[in-house]
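Thread amino acids onto this structure.
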């Protein structure tokens, strides 16, 4: 079934803003990482050795969010930025999806670890649980911030022109490709990983979060919590079984939600919510 034409609020982003969003996202990340790949000694001498706590690493990770706020501000001004941020407070989501994020995702990592003979939880350092909790909260300000871009801008704009399943696949492929230079960068976790399973995992995860995003009516809160679960330091190393299991889970999720995944009807298409959706009802 084809959905009708998408009506765009005058304050919302035009679909053409997707291109500068993608361009700026890649320019920031690939530019910063590229300095260390092309001129490692000079970059290290001038800016310090790259690591997961280096300011450049944070900037590279935040580039989808930076690009998102740039295009929102350019087209909608400060009022648009406030409306865009209001999507953080769309907390209503079905209990099933909440359980999926809070229970099913951790179980995938536990199951993958057990299959390969690993532990139920990641081993604690000698210092105990405190540093792991600290890392957990630091992670909240890394990967989840990307969702301002991927789900904040890219997903609604793409869903104006294609069914959610194709939007999720395209974002997942873009998301995976965006990470590519990090695999040539020593001093980060990516240096020890294989790119192909990671790329497949990105595509699968982008598909999985799509029905959550649409069911929560464009909420940024739930995709951020979903993303946070993926990098939770308490979950054990489950590669490659976590990716394999997630492929099966994604197939089930897509089939179960086939009525909404393969049609644009009901898909979220607003990046900047219309004023009428934010303003309180007038007294009758």
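Threaded sequence (284 positions):
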């Amino acid at each position: 079934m084809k959905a009708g034409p998408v009506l765009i609020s005058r304050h919302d982003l035009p679909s053409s803003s997707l291109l500068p969003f993608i361009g700026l996202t890649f320019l920031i990340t690939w530019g910063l990482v590229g300095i260390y790949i092309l001129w490692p000694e000079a970059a290290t001498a001038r800016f310090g050795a790259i690591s997961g706590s280096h300011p450049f690493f944070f900037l590279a990770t935040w580039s989808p969010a930076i690009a998102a706020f740039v295009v929102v501000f350019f087209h909608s001004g400060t009022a648009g930025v406030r409306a865009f941020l209001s999507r953080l407070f769309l907390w209503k989501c079905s209990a099933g999806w909440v359980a999926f994020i809070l229970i099913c995702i951790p179980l995938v990592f536990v199951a993958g670890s057990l299959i390969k003979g690993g532990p139920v939880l990641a081993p604690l350092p000698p210092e105990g649980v405190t540093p792991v909790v600290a890392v957990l909260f630091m992670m909240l300000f890394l990967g989840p911030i990307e969702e301002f871009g991927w789900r904040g801008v890219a997903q609604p704009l793409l869903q104006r022109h294609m069914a959610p399943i194709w939007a999720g696949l395209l974002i997942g492929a873009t998301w995976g490709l965006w990470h590519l230079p990090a695999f040539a960068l020593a001093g980060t976790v990516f240096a020890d990983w294989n790119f192909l399973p990671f790329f497949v995992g990105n595509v699968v995860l982008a598909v999985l979060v799509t029905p959550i995003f649409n069911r929560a009516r464009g909420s940024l809160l739930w995709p951020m919590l979903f993303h946070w679960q993926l990098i939770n330091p308490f979950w054990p190393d489950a590669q490659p079984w976590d990716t394999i299991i997630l492929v099966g889970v994604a197939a089930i999720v897509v089939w179960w939600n086939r009525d909404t995944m393969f049609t644009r009807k009901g898909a979220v298409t607003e990046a900047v919510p219309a004023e009428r959706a934010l303003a309180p009802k007038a007294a009758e």
